Amino acid sequence: MNTRITMAMALTVAVVPLAQAQAQEAPQIYAGSNGEIEATYSNNCVVYYDANGNRRESNPNCSRNQVSRADTGVAAYRREQGLEGYAGSEAPPGGFGNPGQHYGPPEVVMDGHGRGHVLVGPSCIVYYGRDGDRSDTNQQCSRGERNQADGAMASFRREQGLSEQKTSGYAYGLPVFRLRNGNYQVTTGTGCTVYFRSNGTLLTWLPKCEAIDRSRATAAVVIFRRENP
To answer: How many CB atoms lie within 10 A of CB 147?
Structure first.
């Protein structure tokens, strides 16, 4: 009995510092060319905002405290950028863009954790993991814009002398991640992530995943493993 109590106390001591760290972490603010904003945390919590700075939604990884701090962070960011009262194409000169304006080359933005995103055109945002592989895009990206972003990120990483080892990529139209323990993770849509063992067999999935999501994720892992032995 005492052994169980000791183990429970040890687990509590290990979990509390992590929870405290997440409770104090400031969000990373990513602003798109169309004025939309995303606030992200290291536990893969993402909070989405429209061009007016209004919160639209958050993914299941977010706690109420993280969402509240994201609201505060985005409001502060918009004030600092002089964006209060501006929405999308109504942004001021030097802001998020105006109708018909010429958009420059893709812009690479890196965070302090080695992850990054590339802004292409008026509204496309493409996200990359620490290894430089594409992890996600917003819905405004065309195939050509994604390819432009891939090229910009690859050039940036070469210039910085960063490794190009492949631990993730796209297969069957889905982002596939090879985790450090050898297992795989596939995200099929909002709120659905499917996990696989290192040998490619199905491990578990989030509650929002339906049978079709698991089927698509399985196909993606099979293709990824075949192309990246």
So the answer is: 13
Secondary structure (DSSP) of 22-82: HHHPPPEEEE-TTS-EEEE-TTS-EEEE-TTS-EEEE-TT--HHHHHHHHHHHHHHHHHTT
Residues 64-98 have pLDDT tens digits of 888 888 888 888 777 766 665 444 433 333 443 33
* Judgement on whether residues 60 and 36 belong to the same structural domain of the protein: yes
Tell whether the model's pLDDT for residue 12 goes beyond 80.
no
- Is residue 8 domain-shared with residue 86, that is, in the same domain? yes
Task: Say if residues 116 and 110 touch (Cβ distance below 8 Å).
Answer: yes
Q: Give yes or no: residues 40 and 113 share one domain.
A: no
Whole-prediction pTM? 0.34
Do 143 and 118 share a domain, yes or no?
Answer: yes
User: What is the residue range of 175's domain?
Assistant: 168-227
CA–CA dist 38, 15 (Å, integer): 27
Both 92 and 1 in one domain: the answer is yes
